[in-house]
Amino acid sequence: MTGYVFPPAPPPFLPVAGRREVFPVRRIFCVGQNYALHAAEMGAKAGTAEGSPVFFMKPADSLAHDGDIIPYPPQTASLHHEVELVAALGMGGADIPEQSAMEHVFGYTVGLDLTRRDLQKLAKDGGKPWDLAKGFDHATPCGLLIPAGASQTPPQGAIQLSVNGDIRQDGQLADMIWPLPRLIAILSRFITLQPGDILMTGTPAGVGALESGDKVDAHIDGIGDLSVTIR
Length: 231
Ligand code: MN
What we know:
The protein is an alpha+beta fold. The protein has a single domain (13-230), classed as Alpha-Beta Complex (Fumarylacetoacetate hydrolase, domain 2). It is built from 4 helices and 18 strands. It is globular. The protein starts with 12 loop residues before the first strand and ends with a strand. The mean pLDDT is 97. Manganese (II) ion binds next to loops.
């Protein structure tokens, strides 16, 4: 090989608190229905910690950043917000034991798993893939990445989202059905995780539709805030 036929795109990234260097994002893995009350509002029976969650992916180049203006996406009339704790992996691996899974985490941020809910429902009802319901331009706004440092404990506390100042989602990270170390362990049985992979850990109850002009503010205790505007 002597080069590329055109210059490769630089990797999508997350800014890192206290660092000039950014975190290069490789892949975005997501988990569905990790909070029982959200499973219920989706009309589903909540899974159990002993079972396996549903994983899916969003394209890495769907990342957007704090302060961005997010264009209301085409091909939907039901753009939904989902606030999620995002874990960024600094170390990869396969068959990672749950007991040591936290050693693979570089840091955390607040993310939004923006969703074309109408397309997702059509896909579910038709037994078809979700990809375009979850993967589109600017579909994954994420905030400042907070390094975990020596901490081996996942963040605890509230996870919240408000639209134009009204609280829509107000959950507790402790209510995850599959806690972060278990998610990493299970996912790593299916795929070899790599440094740069990020994992969106699911959304609490209260998902709902966004309209053009809405200001969305997301917050996770101890991690920080993320604000975007839909237009
Ligand atoms: Mn989600």
